[in-house]
Write a structure and sequence with these properties.
By secondary structure, the chain is of the alpha/beta class. It is built from 13 helices and 8 strands. It has helices spanning 2-32, 81-84, 110-125, 138-147, 172-182, 186-194, 197-208, 217-232, 235-242, 251-256, 272-282, 298-301, 303-313; strands at residues 41-46, 49-56, 60-65, 88-93, 129-134, 152-158, 261-266, 287-291. The longest helix has 31 residues, at 2-32.
């Protein structure tokens, strides 16, 4: 019996060492294949970590915020940044836990990002700004506006998330998942599986683009690098997202907000009309617009049409 237990312990140690070794190899290879550009980037020293951002152009300020996803970064705006910079002072930033920004070991919440947005506008931009936010970043932008309306002009949401999914909250099962993902060896291994290059390629081709043949290796590499910077510490944000800590009920805020809001959808994205209708049902002044032959990321799939529409809305 004693020998049997010793064998189990020995096997466990060998398995743990093997997983740790696999994590290390993935980390080393990811560092060698760095595909996130650093052109004219700088850092905002925020209380929870350094925030990577860019500033280009002249004109009224325009802040572009990428989707709240551990693979996403300001690269999401790479195809429209230059065009928009002809008429606006364009700011992009990598959210805490994403891209080039720091990825501290903490529980990420919507309120954390509310603070980040308002602090960034106040300390870096310094005046009221228009904001464009994708997917799961729109909720905390709306909450940021509710808290400090003076920081905001127009809010434009790209591919807004289902408003009712945001009402899901952490529970016992989700907290167990978060605990597992936060562990040093196993959690990192699980995160590396979920953010493998094959899975990222599949997600971009299936969910982000309507015309999958337009997905380039460069885009896949940028998303993969974004998920692996800082030694895969993006897993802490990933754990918080999967455990619903980044969710927040924005229905009361939508009903009360006085700022101009417009929602843009890729016309071919499944259920996008129903999702946008949900927002409009709570605030009849919300405008809606669609870009044909695009899905979740129209700014990447059809940048010319996206810029043209954005300039009309702004």
């Amino acid at each position: 019996m004693k020998k049997h237990i010793q064998n189990i312990i020995s096997s466990g140690i060998v398995l743990a060492a093997g997983i740790a070794g696999a994590n290390k190899i993935i980390d080393i290879l990811a560092e060698k294949e760095d595909h996130l550009p650093m052109k004219k980037g700088r850092y905002f020293s925020w209380k929870y970590g350094n925030i990577y951002y860019t500033k280009n152009g002249k004109g009224k300020p325009l802040l572009l915020i990428h989707d709240l996803n551990t693979c996403s970064s300001s690269y999401e705006w790479s195809k429209v940044n230059k065009k928009l910079s002809k008429n606006y002072t364009v700011y992009t930033m990598d959210l805490l836990g994403c891209g080039r920004s720091d990825k501290p070991n903490l529980t990420y919440t919507s309120f954390l990002y509310v603070q980040l947005v308002n602090d960034f506008i106040r300390k870096i931009i310094g005046s009221r700004t228009n904001i464009v936010a994708t997917g799961y970043s729109l909720p905390f932008v709306i909450m940021s506006c509710q808290m400090e309306t003076k920081n905001f002009n127009k809010i434009i949401g790209v591919s807004p998330c289902d408003i009712y999914n945001l009402t899901k909250t952490p529970d016992k099962k989700r907290n167990i998942l978060k605990y597992l993902l936060d562990t040093p060896v196993l959690g990192t291994f699980l995160y590396n599986i979920k953010t493998s290059k094959n899975r990222i390629t599949e997600q971009i081709s299936r969910d982000y683009f309507y015309k999958s043949h337009l997905v380039s290796e460069k885009q896949v590499n940028a998303y993969y690098t974004g998920s692996k910077t800082s030694h895969s510490h993006g897993k802490y944000l990933y754990a918080s997202i999967k455990s619903c800590y980044t969710n927040i009920n924005i229905i009361p805020a939508i009903e009360k907000i006085n700022n101009s809001i417009c929602l843009i959808g890729g016309r071919e994205q499944p259920f996008i009309h129903d999702i946008i209708d949900e927002y409009c049902a709570h605030n009849s002044s919300i405008e809606e617009a669609y870009i044909s032959n695009t899905s979740y990321l129209p700014q990447m799939e059809s940048p010319e049409k996206f810029v043209e529409l954005l300039q009309i809305l702004l």
